[in-house]
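Example record used in the benchmark description.
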Amino acid sequence: MSHEDARVDPAVAKKLFAGEVKFVWGAQSVEGLPPQHLPEMAFAGRSNVGKSSLINALTGRKALARVSQTPGRTREINFFDLGGTLMLVDLPGYGYAKASKELAAEWQNMIFAYLRGRASLKRVMLLIDARRGVMDVDEAVMDLLDKSAVSYVIVLTKTDSLKDADLALVRAQVEAAAKKHTAAYPALFATSAHKAAGLEQLQCHMLALA
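Model output (C-alpha cells):
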C-alpha cells in the first residue's frame, strides 16, 4: 500500500464498495460519453483478462458487469456510479485474436480519444493476467498510455492460478516492465476475483484518488 493509500481507512473503502452502485451509461463512441461529474477509474485489459469479474468482486456483486464467455464481445465503454463518489469505467477488451503488436484500430481510436479528452479520469487500472504476464499487446497499450500522459497502475488478475513462488516471479517481471514506462504508477496490485484476494488494497487505492 502506498503512502497515499494508507490515509484511507479500509473500513470506509469497504463500506463504499459494498454500498449502492449502478450502471448509468453505455457509450459506443466518444460522442456518446456521459457528462463528467465524478472522478473516474477506468479498467483496461486484454479480452478475457477478467475485467468484469474484478469489477463484480470489488463491488460485491455477481452480475453488475456482464462476464462474457466470448472474448472481445464487449464493445461499449460502460459507466458504473459508485455511491455518488466514484465512476467505475469498464473499457472494451483489446488484443483478441491479434497476433501482432498493433492494436485493433477500432479500439485504439475510441479509447485513445477517451483517455486524452477525459479530465475526470484519475487513473487507469491496467489488468494483466498473472498466468501470462506482460504480452506484446499490453506493451503497446502501455506505450499508448505514456503518450496520452494518463496515469495507470498495473493490476494482476487470476493470481489464485499460481503458486506463491511463480507469482513472485511474475510480479518481479511485471514490475520491471512497468519501470520502463513514464505513466506507470510505482505500485502493483495482485488480485483474485475468485478468492477475493487483494481487493481491499485496490479499493483503498481508488478511494484515495477520489
